[in-house]
Amino acid sequence: MKPEYDLAIIGGGINGAGIARDAAGRGARVLLLEQGDLAQGTSSASTKLIHGGLRYLEHYEFALVREALSEREVLWSIAPHIIWPLRFVLPHREGLRPRWLLRLGLFLYDHIGGRRALLATQTIDLTHGPEGEVLKPAYSKGFVYSDGWVDDARLVVLNARDAAMRGADIRTRCKVEGLHRGEGLWHIQTSQGTFTAGAVVNAAGPAVLDLLGRAGQATQQQMRLVRGSHIVVPRLFDHEKAYFFQLPDGRIFFAIPYEEDFTLIGTTDRDYTGPTSEVRASEEEIAYLCAGVNEYFQRQITPDDVVWTYSGVRPLVSDGSGRPEAATRGYRFEVDGRADEAPLLSVFGGKITTYRHLAASAVDRLAPLVPAIAGASWTHGAALPGGDFPKEGQQDLIAALRTRRPDLPERAVRRLVRCHGTFVLALDGPVGASPTQDGEDFGHCLCAREVDWMMREEWAVKADDILWRRTKLGLRFDGNQTARLEKYMAQRRA
Questions:
Q1: What pLDDT shows up at residue 326?
Q2: 3-state class of 150 per DSSP?
Q3: CATH 3.30.9.10 intervals, the chain
């Protein structure tokens, strides 16, 4: 019996979408199944960073840090509309990690990952310049180093879209209700019908062990679910650098410019045992992050200043670490199935920065078992949709859209480019050549044409899909604007 698909991937987060893209590009007939929206869970709840993980050096995770650092400029080059460099200010704090140790860590950070275009670490005098004037006077010395910013949810959507452009079948709101082997194939029962596949990838993230159980498979692998929470407050500083702060309990947190008018603060690390559908930032976590901010910034904040919170459950490989922040962010694969059985590859762990390399490695593992997969990984230099312009060329694309549509506010121009890249100039893209082609404006220059584009090309179904994942306009929309958008989308679906 010939399967409908060579490979079925369960899980529409960054790992699942990345594997779908790589496998589809190597000739496999790919099915991607996601029970909700793309990136609805962990993959839209990161700290929005493409980074090596400076703090992982303390835990001797040199291989993981090297792998992640080597990916920063690769990802920047293939998606320069949603990924760009970000400089981080690391103030020295008396009584915590000594300056020589910070400098040694940053020296390693600069040199073990093949940095080329990103700027090197510098020592900084915080008594002069905008980086220090917002801090308390106790912080007079520090360092500035490089990492990268990413729109995490859009990274997932663009990988899925690229996979679809290469023939993959992407199905959202499609819950897997059962799966079993039979006749040398996988039979997958879903809310949209039953599918057959020659192989399955379990990329279910926090639900990876649950899915194995439903497939009747045993594993010795243990997972550690860790909740990471973030808060968003009105902008705390006017420059475009971010901050990396140390706390007396040994943890660190970031304060990052966010959506022009806000500051993103996080993250926490708490072991989590509840339902992943109900993960929320606790009052304790919100207070903890506010207190951390207040130890560094002159401007003090309280939980009443928080305009939005979000939390995600990170599925980490259980490595016996005593504290959740020390648990490895590495990943592992497990392949199940005898020679005469359809294979199942499960993905344990991972982080957003290493998703592309993880995907390539996963497809390499499957290649001997799935005859349709041909050739080597190709994603290292292939632009994601909208990212086909030089990595330093974002401002040129912004200028081109400004020239084409001088009626658009500057903020809207920047948002559109950083959302859609070169598609903003396409004749059939999300932005019309004139205002008359854009249709109804639901607020903040989110127009019907762009909404239709996201529904047609990016699997958006509900207002939340657009306001909180494909854009972050949920921070700006009021109740009436959201209701108008939801009504319009319901009419389009009908």
A1: 62
A2: strand
A3: 85-150+224-318
Question: What CATH number should be reported for the domain whose range is 5-42+153-222+328-366?
Answer: 3.50.50.60
Q: 58-67, 92-101, 282-291, 323-332 — which is least confidently predicted?
A: 323-332
The two most distant CA atoms of the chain are separated, in Å, by: 72
Identity (one letter) of the amino acid at 92?
H
Instruction: Kindly indicate the confidence band of residue 322, based on its pLDDT and cuts at 50, 70 and 90.
Output: low
Question: Residues for the chain: how many in total?
Answer: 494
**Closest C-alpha among 446, 430, 329 to residue 386:** 430
Query: How far is 161 from 61, CA to CA, in rounded Å?
Result: 33
Cis peptide preceding 267, ω within 30 of 0: yes
> What is the pLDDT of the chain when averaged over all its residues?
95
Distance separating alpha carbons of residues 213 and 219, to the nearest angstrom: 9
- Cα of first residue to Cα of last residue in the chain, in angstroms, is 37
Give the integer Cα–Cα distance in Å for 340 and 466: 44
**214-to-3, 36, 176, 184, 202 alpha-carbon distances in Å:** 21, 18, 10, 18, 11
- Check whether 112 has a pLDDT greater than 70: yes
Give the DSSP letter of residue 384: P
Does residue 278 surpass a pLDDT of 90? no
The answer to whether 269 touches 324, Cβ cutoff 8 Å, is yes
pLDDT at 324: 72
| Cβ(256)–Cβ(264) below 8 Å | yes
pTM: 0.96
Cα–Cα dist 195/193, whole Å: 7
Task: Identify the bridge partners of residue 50 per DSSP, sorted by sequence position.
Answer: 148
The model's pLDDT over 386-397, given as tens digits with 9 standing for 90+, comes to: 999 999 999 999
- Read off φ and ψ for residue 144, nearest 5 degrees: -125, 125
The answer to whether the CB of 5 falls within 8 A of the CB of 169 is yes
Angle at 180 between CA 216 and CA 356, to 5 degrees: 85
**Cβ distance 48 to 151 under 8 Å?**
yes
What does the pLDDT read at residue 216? Answer: 84
CATH code of the domain made up of 85-150+224-318: 3.30.9.10
Per-residue model confidence as pLDDT tens digits over 400-441: 999 999 999 999 999 999 999 999 999 999 999 999 999 999
